[in-house]
TrEMBL record:
Pfam families: Cu_amine_oxidN1, Glucosaminidase. This is Glucosaminidase domain-containing protein. Keywords: Hydrolase. It comes from the Bacteria. InterPro entries: Cu_amine_oxidase-like_N (IPR012854), Glycosyl_Hydrolase_73 (IPR051056), MGlyc_endo_b_GlcNAc-like_dom (IPR002901). It comes from Paenibacillus terreus. Residues 4-155 form the Mannosyl-glycoprotein endo-beta-N-acetylglucosamidase-like domain.
Amino acid sequence: MSLTRKQFIEKLAPYAVDCMKKTNISAALTIAQGCLESADGNSGLTKKANNLFGIKGKGDAGSIVMPTKEQRSDGSEYTIDASFAMYSSWGACVEAKANMFLKGVSWDKDKYKPVVGKRGEEAAKAVQACGYATDIRYADKLIAIMDAHNLYQYDKLESDVQELTKEITVYYETDKDTGQLLNNTTYVKLTKLGEVFGFACSFDNSTKKANINGRELQDTLLVDGRAYVQVRPLVKAFGGELIWDNSNKTLTVKKSASEDKTE
């Protein structure tokens, strides 16, 4: 039984939103790509391999060889046989695409970096600019789907419409589990800052650098095995406000709906 576009969007949306919460990759983009590349979940590749996005290579369930259309720079099309990834579920496929956007490809780890943090139309344009597809009208097609089905609604997380406030106390007065003050520069524990902004945070033991939404930070402070990052430039980049209270030595980090920068 074939899915209608409405049915497909309703089925894919929870996976896309959950993935956005973890990776900061637009749910609207994920859904629009799924609609376009899987024929609303009705393509042979989707039915046989749970592959919604035409991802090549190997997935968590192996791979499968399928014919695929490619497009030359002049717009003409041609067909080739290619090895596509097989996945155990739609959720696994969505996560695989997100992981590729975060980590790039073997020859360019930053290839899809401009996509991370973008929303809606900007995300669609960034995907095309990064060379994700050979279709020269790829972004236009994605945006048309977003417009027709108001996919932008799925990009609005709770943290985008409600103000979030966290207090981070610098260590020299009370608790160094949240913050450090070094040469008048405030460092905040990586995980604490992630709680405020919904960042996907990790720490690479080999490089001793923190990663936020797939972006490696050069200035990482390690204290007693804890990773801290400079709070001020990150809050400025991602939208927010810092309020320092000298009387009780606390720093309040705020993110509100009116301040939603994801540069």
